[in-house]
Structure formats: C-alpha cells, structure tokens
Amino acid sequence: MRHLLSTRHLSRDEAVAILDVAEDMADVSTREIKKLPALRGKTVVNLFFEDSTRTRISFEAAAKRLSADVINFAAKGSSVSKGESLKDTAQTLAAIGADAVVVRHGASGAPQVLATSGWIDAGVVNAGDGTHEHPTQALLDAFTIRRRFFGADARGRDLAGLSVVIVGDVLHSRVARSNAWLLTTLGAEVRLVAPPTLLPVGVETWPVTIDYSLDSALATPTDVVMMLRVQAERMSAAFFPTAREYARLWGLDDERLARLDEGTIVMHPGPMNRGLEISSGAADSARSTVLEQVSNGVSVRMAVLYLLLSGEREDLA
Amino acid sequence: MSESIVVKGARLLGGGATDLLVRDGVIAEMGSGLSEGGARVIDAAGLIALPGLVDLHTHLREPGFEQSETVLTGSRAAAAGGFTAVHAMANTSPVADTAGVVEQVASLGDAAGYVTVRPVGAVTVGLNGEALAEIGAMARSRAAVRVFSDDGKCVSDPLLMRRALEYVKAFDGVIAQHAQEPRLTEGAQMNEGIVSSELGLAGWPAVAEEAIIARDVLLAEHVGSRVHICHLSTAGSVEVVRWAKSRGIAVTAEVTPHHLLLDEELVRSYDARYKVNPPLRRAEDVQALRAGLADGTIDIVATDHAPHPAEDKDCEWSGAAFGMVGLETALSVVQASVVDSGHLDWADVARVFSRIPAEIGRLSGYERGIAVGAEANFTLYDDTASRVIEKGDLRGKSTNSPYLSLTLPGRVVTTVHSGRATVLDGELVDPDVLRSVGGPRG
Q1: Which residues of A touch B196 (CB under 8 A)?
Q2: Which residues contact A19 (CB under 8 A, 6 or more apart)?
Q3: pTM value?
Q4: Does the bond joining B279 to the residue before it have cis omega, within 30 degrees of 0?
Q5: Are A91 and A120 in contact (CB under 8 A)?
Q6: What's the domain count of chain B?
Q7: Closest Cα partner for B290 from B256, B252, B329?
C-alpha cells in the first residue's frame, strides 16, 4: 500500500487484508510487552492542521508500538488563513526525512494533494480531511463490527449478511462517507438516516438506502446502529429547528435503545454529545462499543502504518 | 508611419481564398494577386482569416494585482490568442468604479498597443453591492465605458439591479451580471451534485445561477433594458435564457471556452487548476451549452481569463483561488468543443467571438468583419494544426491553465490589430517594434 487516502477505492480483499493484519496487531496489544520492532528506524509524522487529540494519540500509540520514531506537528493555519502552506510544510517534512505522514486537514482532498503533488515522497495516511473521508475510522469501525459478530472466527471474513444503520449529519461527515463505501464493499447492507437537510445532494446514487425516520429504520431489525456527532455550528444554520427537536426525532434515546434487538450494537466515533444524538443510557450500555472502537483504533492504525512502511513498498501495485 | 501588409491566399469564411492588402489601418483591397511596394508579405495559404476576436470578459488585474497580470502582459496573451480587443473587468484594486480608474486602464491598453482595451465599469461602489458607482462619469470619460459589471460578485440586491438596469439606458450601456445567488453559494467550492457529495466539497448549486438569471430577465423586461449574462454554465440557465428570448426580452448571454469543454469529473483530482467560478458542471450541462451556442440562445463566447500566481493554486482545493487563464487557448478550445463537433462553423465563430461581442460592448469597427474599408483587425488561424499545450504557449504572467499537457487543435499564426501585426508566425511582435510602427491614424 503506497498511501491510504480513502475507502472509496479499496477492494474487498484489500480491506479484509488490512483487518486481518489488525487482528495480528490486536494480539500484540494483549501481550505483556506491547511492542514490535517492525518499524524501527522509520519516522512517522503526525501532521495535524486541525486539532484532534483523540485521533492523534491513537496514531501516536500505533506508531510507537511498532517502534517507529514519531514526530507530532501541529500545523496552525493553512494557506486559507495565511499560515504555513501545505506545500511548505510538506517540503519541510520531506527534508526532515519522514517516511510516513499522517495528515488531518480541514480541507477535503488535502491528503490527496499531498500524495500527488511531488512535494514529498512519504506514504500519506488520511486522518480525516474536511467533509471527505476518514478511512482509518471506517476501518476500525469495520474491525469492531467484525470482532463483535464473528469473534475468534473473524479472520478472512467480510461483513456480508450484516445490516448497519448510520444516523445523523451525513452531509458534513467524513466518517459517514468512509463507512458508506467501506461497509458496503465488505458486503454489509447500509441504511442512512438523517433529516433531508443533512443528506448530500446525489446520495441516492450511493450504494445505500435512505430513511428520514429513525423509528421506521429501527422497525426493521438491524445489527449495528452507528450514531454520528452533531456539530454545534449546525444548530444555527437552519439544518434543523432546535437541538431538542433533533434529539427527539434522530437521537438514540433510552426508549429507542430499549426497542433494539438483543444482539444489536451501538457505535459512535466520538466525541459524543450525550443527550443530543445519544443518551447516556445508550452510550454506557453493554451494547455500546465506544471504548472498543478506541482500542481497536490503535490496532487498525498499526496495521495501516505497517502495510505502508514495511517491506520497501513491494506492494506498490 | 504605419506599415502596409499583404496577406496572400487566406481562406475566407464563406469559402474561397483571397489576398488582403492592409494600408493605413484598414483593409484597402481584397482579391487575388495583390501587391504593394515595401509591404510586409504574409503567406497565409491554408490559414483561415477570422475577424479580430473580441473578448467581453477578461481580467487584466491591473491596477492592484500586478503579480497575476498587467494590462501589458494580458494584452500580449490576448494577441497571442487572436484577440484584437478585450474588455477588462472591474475587480481591480482600486476597483474600476470611477472615471479615473477606467481612463487609466484604457491608456495602459493604448500604451501596450497589442489590443484595444475596453474597461468595464463597476455597477456598485467597490463591488460592494450597496450603492451605484458613477456609471455616468465612466460612460462619459475618455474610456467611454458601455459595459458595467460587478463580475466576481453578483448584483444580488434586486432593487439595486433594477435601478442599474434602468440607469444605464441613459448611456446605451449594459449590465453584465455575474449570476450567483450569494446565500445559496456560501463557501461553495464546486458544482453541487454527485461528485461534490463524494468529494466532500461544498456545493455551488445550478439553481443559484438560474434563479438570478430568471429574476434579471424579468427585471430587464419590466424596465425595458438590455441585460447581459456572464459565463452561463448550466443547462437550466440555457432554458431560462431561451424562454426569455422567446418573450422578446433583450438578453444576451456568454459561455466560456472551459465550460464548453471541461466537466466536473476533473475535480476528482483535487487539482486546483480546475477550480473556477462558476464551477465546471456536469457533462449534460456541457452538452446543453454547446447546443445553446449552436442555436443562438447563447450569443457569444467570452474567456473569463482569470490569472492567478502559482501559490494561489499550488495548495489544497478550498484554499485555492477561483479562475483559469484562457486567452491564449480560447480559439483552440472553441475548435475542439464546438467546431470539430459540428455545432458551429467558422463563420459562426466569427459571429460569437467577434461581431456580437463587439456589438454588445458597443465597440465599432467589427460590424462587417473582414471587408474592404473595414478596420484591419483579423487573425490568421491554422485549424489543421495540433499541439500539446505547454507553459511556453501561455504569454501572460500566469500559467493557471487547465489545458497544460493536453493536446488541442489549431494554432494562431498571425494577429493584426488596427493594421499592425501583433503576432507573426505564432510569435508576439516585440513591443518596441510595435510602437515604432505607430498608430493606424497618425
């Protein structure tokens, strides 16, 4: 793997292979010494143009468990705010000798620009770009689903036969996009539930079904309910009348939680708005995978960095 | 003193070939076997003689943004593209909203000498959309402005637009509207649709253009004014203009070469050279624009040449500037998109890229095209050529072209402006030589 920029163009076999390597990495995390020498001498730069402590420390833990040297670069601003430009930053990192750059950027497509510009030769991992994609989040979600439903038999399997309901601000969500592509590639059936204002134009061409009503979506048995975070800035931009109305119609409250089938799991990429898109009862229930998602995130990111940096990129094809 | 030129064997639009004798800035004779002692002889065998191209929509950037383009460098780019006149948009710094600025731009154009530079005046002070600029002063200045536009911004206030449409009637002017409903396009990055949703880029919906055009043609009808629509980009806009024309409303519309050739699929690269306003649209829109140009719904082609320095494009998509250069490649792109496809013949190209834009801009000298007694503005074009566009083909200051590395048909071989050659054998005539040849009439 040369870069990981999106899940849109990952094949089923490529995705399953990443998840299988992540299983191996998860095994390492259960050992007394949670560290492999695989990436000794490699330099991984966490280049974050947007604050995200959660994602940054997850990548940092992943790189360190593989014995890579880690540099955290919190780049303030972008060419939009006339801070340091993406180009100058990239060339600086190239001069430092970065082998992989994990990039979080507020602008959709910035990781792809970094990977194709010629400014830097390093492998690029998209750690979330604007409202485009967040591929490692989708991979860790798929990994979490696979483990929950198939346990020890997870290796080699995809998600065929499972159904996933993704609820919330799909329009602005890179997590929703990456999951819509990846989970369907892996054979899951995906339903998106949102107010029409928070669904992108053209969503009917995606390989998913759409429901405006959470209650009608939950009336059909489902294996996974994934709640998306509602950003504060949507409240004042006429996407929905009030937070209270949103919570009432599209929130996973205790009453809806009680209606779920016994085996249904509840996911959230975090950070959660308790009481808005998810009740505390749902977030803290045994169905909730929120903390598993965090720990699986490290395993999946170890797998991605390992595949990117080990073996002299022999898998360029 | 001005030079005499004899063009040998140029192809005429109606078929057949002719020699052209240019003397004292006008086409003195047409026919075969023409000669004149001391004249520059240009062999034009096989080349099409097109009347000088007139661009109604050019950003020359001076004053204020000389890092992108100047009147001189933009004039050179224009001449290289076969143009003999350009209309310089008002979004400079200071904005061209006073007689002083438009006169300065016009005289910089005269000094450069490559093309006639016709300044466009702002509709509102500072392009702020709040108060009318001194339209009368600009119209009556030495620059004799006839086209007024806040291009880059929409005159979105309906009352102000109504007043502007009414007021310019006193000066035989026209408002050229940049049709973009501002609230519907806040933060917009590309055409809104399937591609924008996948790429996670904020959408610029077609309705934001179409709604303004619909409003403005109705306003023009109501107050009995003419209105010009800049850079039409959607199939729906073509429909609205077609409807307006069928009602007899005095609306004219332009389309850019890039909207005739390129579509939004290119944005998947996140390559900011494809970032332009209005954005590249769907393939269906491109087809509708070609058909609209062919059936006369769209009156003219205009480049919207929009130079930007490298650092404004060499970055992430949302940080990049809108716009692409287009003067040098305009004819080739028109050939590729609508001539080679059979939508237009070369006489149509002369109409949509010379006679009608001159008429809309009230620029005289282009009424009859290439004819005895007409001002000698023409370009000799090799439509059989084919070339890979390289940075060296771009003669302005900026190279933000979406066509770099693309193979395009055709090549401008010679351009003659007011009887003086500005381009010879594909190369720009040196500015000092151009000046020494002197003006056409004294």
Answers
A1: 200-202
A2: A139, A142, A143, A146, A154, A300, A303
A3: 0.95
A4: no
A5: yes
A6: 2
A7: B256
B127 within some domain: yes
Same domain, B109 and B73: yes
Q: Residue range A207-235: average pLDDT? A: 94
Dist. CA A221–CA A161, nearest whole Å: 12
Residue B5 has which token pair?
């030129």
Angstrom CA distances, A6 to B39, B173, B357, stand at 64, 52, 46
The token duo for B226 is 């003419």
Question: Which of A87, A116, A132 is the closest to B200 by Cβ?
Answer: A132
B21-31 residue pLDDT tens: 999 999 999 99
Among candidate residues B311, B327, B360, the one where a domain is terminated: B360
Per-position DSSP letters for B32-45, written without gaps between them: SS---TTPEEEE-T
Are A76 and A83 spatial neighbours (Cβ–Cβ below 8 Å)? yes
CATH 2.60.40.1180 correct for A135-289: no
Are residue B137 and residue B39 in the same domain, yes or no? Answer: no
Residue of chain B with shortest Cα separation from A204: B194
- Using a CB-CB cut-off of 8 Å, the residues of chain B touching A90 are none
In total, the C-beta contacts within 8 angstroms joining chain A to chain B are 83
d(CA B76, CA B405) in angstroms, rounded, equals 22
Q: What ipTM was reported for this prediction?
A: 0.93
Residues of chain B with pLDDT under 70: 1-2, 438-442
Cα–Cα dist A19/B172, whole Å? 70
Residues B65 and B29 in one domain: no
Report yes or no on B369 lying in a domain: no
Check CB contact of B73 with chain A, cutoff 8 Å.
no
Which tens digit of pLDDT belongs to each residue from B272-294? 999 999 999 999 999 999 999 99
Nearest-angstrom CA–CA distance, B375 and B370 = 8
Amino acid identity, residue B96?
A
Per residue in A253-286, pLDDT (tens digit) is: 999 999 999 999 999 999 999 999 999 999 999 9
Q: How confident is the model at residue A77 (pLDDT cuts 50, 70, 90)?
A: low
Tell me, yes or no, whether B25 and B131 share the same domain. Answer: no
Say if B315 is an interface residue toward chain A (CB within 8 Å).
yes
Tell me the two tokens of residue A174. Answer: 């890179």
Q: Which of B199, B271, B314 sits opposite A108 (nearest CB)?
A: B199
CA-nearest of B283, B184, B297 to B249 is B297
Q: Using CB atoms and an 8 Å cut-off, which of residues 210-269 of chain B contact chain A?
A: 269
* Interface contact A116-B205, CB threshold 8 A: no
Asked if B86 and B129 sit in the same domain, the reply is: yes
Among residues B360, B394, B420, the one where a domain terminates is B360
Q: Which fold has domain A12-133+294-313?
A: Rossmann fold (3.40.50)
Among B315, B317, B318, select the one facing A85 at the smallest CB separation. Answer: B315
B343 lies in a domain?
A: yes
Domain that holds residue B44: 5-48+374-433
Give residue for tokens 């998947």.
B268
Residues B416, B302 share a domain: no
Which CATH number covers residue B420?
2.30.40.10
Confidence of residue A78 (pLDDT cuts 50, 70, 90): very low
**Selection from A224, A189, A223 nearest residue A207 by Cα:** A189
Within this chain, do residues B265 and B411 fall inside the same structural domain, yes or no?
no
Choose the mutation target among B195, B315, B316, B318 for the interface with A, i.e. most A CBs under 10 Å. Answer: B316
Helix (H) or strand (E) holding B251: strand B251-255
Give kind and range of the element (H or E) at residue B59: none
Tell me where in chain A the CATH 3.40.50.1370 domain(s) lie: 12-133+294-313, 135-289
Predicted pLDDT at A317: 32
CATH number at residue B251: 3.20.20.140
Is the peptide bond prior to A200 cis by the omega test (within 30 degrees of 0)?
Answer: no
Q: Is B142 within the bounds of a domain?
A: yes
Instruction: Judge if B219 and B108 occupy the same domain.
Output: yes
